[in-house]
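Open question from group meeting: does this chain pack into something compact, or does most of it stay loose? Before anyone orders reagents, we agreed to write out a predicted structure and look at it together. Recording both the input and the output here so the notebook holds the full record.
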Amino acid sequence: MAANAKVIDSHLHIWATASESTSDYPYSSPDQTPPPNLQNVAFPSALLELMSKAGVDGTLIVQPINHKFDHSYVKNAIKTYPEKFKGMMLFDPSLSPKMAIDRLEELVLAGFVGVRFNPYLWPDGQPMSGTCEDGADGSGMAVYRRCGELNIPVGVMCFKGLGLHYEDILNLISKSPKTTLILDHMGFCALNEKGDQAFQQLLSLADYPNVMIKVSALFRNTGDVDQFPYDKVRKLRFEPLLERFGAKRLMMGTDFPYVLETEGAYEGAVNAVKSWLEGEERDAVMGGTAELAFGKWEQTREG
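Structure tokens returned:
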């Protein structure tokens, strides 16, 4: 990599430990308690140690569902380590359009540089791009437009499959072409028949210049036919994405702490993607694209 190129992990989570959750940072509900084997490993200093070993300069912390719309834990991490961490807030579909925009602007001032749309937080049947009864933008669409004005990307998590949300995503894109839309985890297009069909939809989004893709959570895309170091994911998912989108619209991410339960763990996930690329393409996917989308992480690693 170029001497001044940074390595940026564009997708991970942190959350309170068990002890922290009993005081200042409670989980949103008992059923949102993290898995027992990960509950006490996703705090900032533990992450920083892994980042140092893996040569990662900065990260984008995606607000975890465990704390839902209480962003105080991530906000405190950004405040404590501003040169290392930026944040992506979690959008609350229950807010009115005005309240949702106010919340967006409040968290932007606190160091959040992106918004996550989780379509499963909307009431059943209501699209992210929906309108109010009077025809005005619903809160999701209002925030999506405002993000375009503020140059704040919106990430979309299609956990149950891209096909369920493809038309909704097209509506978002067409209604606000200025807004950057980022698909998490390569669209959750697993290596199986259903994933292959969804992957063709994902590739079609390359026609829209405001769409980017996170090459993240590789382990979520293996289906039953691949494993670390993800050779089939590389050939059947990453290489077609690179051809259609180009390196400047792809960004590496690990999905820490969940990646810790996989072979290779954190450092292995970083190095897998790095090994797939050379030169300027490597610099872009490993950090340059994330900085184009979310702004510069101001300090590089020591040593």
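Observations to bring back to the group:
Residues 279-294 form the longest helix (16 residues).
The chain has a mean pLDDT of 96.
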